[in-house]
Design a protein that fits this description.
The protein has helices at 2-6, 60-72, 91-104, 123-128, 143-150, 155-168, 187-197, 223-233, 296-316, 340-343, and strands at 28-32, 77-81, 109-114, 133-137, 171-178, 200-205, 236-238, 248-252, 257-262, 275-278, 283-285, 293-295. The chain is an alpha/beta fold. Strand 3 (109-114), helix 4 (123-128) and strand 4 form a beta-alpha-beta unit. Helix 2 (60-72) runs parallel beside helix 9 (296-316).
Length: 345
Amino acid sequence: MTSMAQTGAAGIAPAKALIDGFGRRITYLRISVTDRCDLRCRYCMPEAMAFSPRSEILSLEEIAAIADAFVARGVRRIRLTGGEPLVRRGVPDLARMIGRHLATGGLDELTLTTNGTNLARNAQALFDAGIRRVNVSLDSRDPATFRHITRRGEVEKVLDGIAAATAAGLGVKINMVALKGLNEDEIEPMLRWCAAEGHDLTLIETMPLGWIEEDRTDRYLPLTGVREAMAARFTLTPLIDRTGGPARYYRVEELGARIGFITPLTENFCAGCNRVRITAGGMLYLCLGQDARADLRGALRAGGPAALDALLDEAMTRKPEHHDFHIDRRGAAPAVARHMSVTGG
């Protein structure tokens, strides 16, 4: 399988690329290593969240084998995510297993998304494993607001984790979910702080995934309006920079900063989708906002790499053209029943 992965190096096409029914080539894989999290963010999950039994979770070796299969089929970027990936033991070891494809040229980038609470003690190990960039979820730098949003978090731990990541040589991008009435007045201060610290900032619209106690319409803040307001205060220069995901980036000229906007509700970004996601239980989801899926764990355990490869071919024919996210009426059911922590952010 390693030799197949190496055929994707140096711009050479893999033996058989993953191309969906709409002609989109899949080059970006997000892997949830656990659905568990040490926070309970209000827009993400209920306070009494039920997590998967550990017996249903892929081993680290199985995750690495699945990653190998995707690299062999032309995936160039892999992101480790959760839940909160760093609550699972051995994630730096997993990063090392997958990261060997960086040395062969089979993989362009291996990254990680984290809430930052356990980043301080893992930052150096992640860098040593080949990761060079992390996304840190930080919706507020105010301790009281942060604790309210997360229900239990201490923002100082996250800030310490960000500092440790920077010291270890990791690039940091801050992910901030824009929440009306909670943190909208912190967007510009967050941007200025990121500019001063050398971090990128990405703003994200809340997504209707999974049941929560609150009505998401109360906190939905359309980012088109935020961007327009920001453009009235700063010079925003559109950038062609992409990190493989759906964000659209701008340079804030007066601050020398870069800001991204992820707008699944106000501006559909599906036309160029190059992404699929794997849950910690080995289920391949072909779209974040749809239920089309394939059981990779079952295929791997029953038939090994050959069965896994065949299932990937079949799954590509079922990747939806676009998501069905809507958040335009109070009391509406979420677009899909599963929470973001299950699929992976």
